[in-house]
Design brief:
The chain has about 525 residues and is α+β, with helices and mostly antiparallel strands. It has helices at about 1-20, 100-135, 140-190, 290-305; strands spanning about 30-35, 40-50, 60-65, 70-75, 85-95, 195-200, 210-215, 220-230, 235-245, 255-260, 310, 315-320, 320-330, 335-355, 360-385, 390-425, 435-445, 450-460, 470-475, 480, 485-490, 495-510. Among the domains are: about 25-95 and about 190-215; about 100-190, Helix Hairpins (Orthogonal Bundle); about 410-510, Immunoglobulin-like (Sandwich). α2 (about 100-135) packs antiparallel against α3 (about 140-190).
């Protein structure tokens, strides 16, 4: 009897011995905080360690990071009275989250169904070939030939109908397989590996103690989406900003604290060293543009020619070099894209139409914005709207409190520049000078039903030799002038037009060969 009791006691202690002797499996963790950057995210997770902290010696805690995690970015913050002895990281085969495992099972089932459809199609092809071969069979009488022809026709029609139905089913299942594959790729980041970090800890942890760790995750990010609606009659621009976020960590994040950073964290942490400053005679050499410079030059020339969730208002926090928006606790599903509203503002704006008639008769509506305080709005895709009508989409950003925002060309307001006179003067015997005079008339025309303000800009000729003398005559005089342009700001009533006369007189030495530039 005593021997039996000892045996039972040994059996009772055996599971405890095995539990401490076996290496620990991955620990259940939860994503608590996510800071989205434009093309990455900073993840903060926590895990309970009180069960492993019972022993006096070092004990391991196993953490599993997504395949897109940067293992070198892992930082671990233990609770009070707990010390990190070592961290070992290795690549392992990932364990699918339940939803992804369900998608994989559905994909496998669909692929099996596709094979069955292909087998049935092949069987129908064999049957069809059999009946087509019967057309060469010999018959003894006309009646027998009629019966054979009827059988061939009937069975061929049935087989072709079945084949068409199966081909339609095959097309449907191919589409479903493609959708499932896309969903799995979006949710898992197209990777089947994960990172396993074994953290060796020492020191007794308190009850329900949490190990906090963070890392950088690729395969996720966010982008801003804007809408700017011009309302010239009210002197305002309606501005709205949404954030589209996505992640492919392979698991859904539930009730995680979500933040959006307008800039990616800097990767350079060491200041650059100065290269030697060497001054020496230059060796003449023929210039040969590199492939990179040619590409940059071509790009420069081409440029020259050229589901919404409503929650509590996000909170902006200004950091050194970027802004941080807190959206509160959100659910973010793996593989899906979600939109969250960031802000809506009404910006006061002064509107006018900008015209450069020496280049084009078109005028462009411009809203000049002056805000009460600076804003940090990162570059993103924006939809531009004019009194409810979509104008187009282009990139938009604003840092500061002032901006000129354009809303496209107006079909009702045009400004033309017509040359009235272009005369070259004859040189005198004693002065030995050459002269040239240009005269233009600028006409601003408004065919719309409301009065408009137009800003007209014309280039100022810029001599590159002090012997070249220029004189100007304008009627009326420009509202503004700088080294590059003359500016007139005129009000044009509805269905009316206004004119400006302008001229330039040039004087230079007779023997100087002149290049009159693009406005010759």
């Amino acid at each position: 009897m005593r021997r039996r009791k000892i045996h039972l006691a040994g059996l009772f202690l055996l599971p405890l011995f095995i539990a401490f002797a076996m290496p620990p499996g991955p620990t259940e963790a939860a994503v608590k905080e996510v800071t989205f950057f434009p093309a990455s995210a900073g993840i903060v997770e926590t895990v309970k360690i009180s069960a492993q902290g019972a022993g006096a010696g070092p004990y391991p805690v196993t953490l599993v990071l997504p395949p897109q995690a940067d293992p070198e970015s892992l930082t671990v913050a233990p609770p009070a009275r707990v010390k990190i002895e070592d961290i070992q990281i290795k690549s392992v085969t990932r364990t699918d989250e339940e939803r992804i495992a369900r998608l994989r099972a559905e994909l496998k089932k669909s692929q099996s169904g596709r094979k069955d459809l292909q087998a049935r199609l092949q069987a129908l092809d064999v049957q069809l070939q059999f009946w087509q071969a019967q057309t060469k069979a010999k018959t003894k009488s006309v009646a027998e030939a009629d019966q054979l022809a009827a059988a061939i026709g009937k069975n061929s029609r049935r087989i072709l109908a079945d084949k068409n139905a199966l081909e339609a089913d095959l097309e449907t299942i191919d589409k479903k397989i493609k959708e499932l594959q896309d969903q799995i790729q979006q949710a898992t980041g197209k990777k089947d590996k994960a990172w396993e970090a074994v953290v060796s800890l020492s020191g007794a942890a308190g009850p329900d103690a949490l190990l906090r760790y963070s890392y950088t995750l690729s395969g996720c990010g966010w982008q801003p989406l804007y809408r700017l609606e011009a309302q010239p009659s009210s002197n305002r621009i309606l501005f709205s900003w949404e954030a589209e976020i996505w992640q492919s960590a392979g698991e859904d994040w539930k009730q995680a604290e979500i933040r959006l950073a307008t800039l990616a964290p800097p990767k350079t942490i060491v200041p650059p060293e100065w290269p030697p400053w060497i001054i020496k005679p230059r060796t003449p050499a023929a210039y040969r543009p590199s492939r990179a410079s040619k590409t940059a030059l071509a790009a420069s020339e081409a440029l020259d020619n050229e589901d919404v969730l409503v929650q509590a208002a996000p909170v902006e926090t200004l950091r050194a070099g970027y802004s941080l928006w807190s959206l509160g606790k959100k659910n973010v599903a793996a593989g899906s894209r979600q939109r969250f509203k960031i802000r809506e503002d009404t910006w006061p704006a002064q509107f006018l139409y900008l015209a450069r008639p020496s280049l084009s008769a078109q005028t462009f509506l411009r809203g000049k914005v002056k805000l009460h305080r600076p804003v940090d709005i990162p570059s993103g895709q924006a939809s531009f709207v004019m009194d409810g009508a979509m104008i187009g989409k282009r990139s938009f950003s604003l840092t500061g409190s002032e901006a000129d925002i354009y809303f496209g060309a107006s079909p009702f307001v045009t400004v033309t520049s017509s040359i009235v006179s272009d005369r070259t003067g004859a040189a005198t015997l004693f002065q030995n000078k050459q002269t040239r005079q240009w005269q233009w008339v600028i006409e601003a025309k408004n065919t719309g039903s409301t009065a408009v303000r137009v800003r007209i800009e014309e280039p100022v000729p810029q001599p590159r030799d002090e012997r070249i003398k220029l004189a100007y005559l304008h009627k009326p005089e420009p509202s503004e002038k700088d080294a590059a342009k003359f500016v007139w700001v005129v009000d044009v009533p509805a269905l009316q037009k206004t004119s400006i006369d302008t001229s330039v007189e040039l004087e230079a030495p007779q023997d100087m060969v002149l290049d009159f530039g693009w406005r010759n």
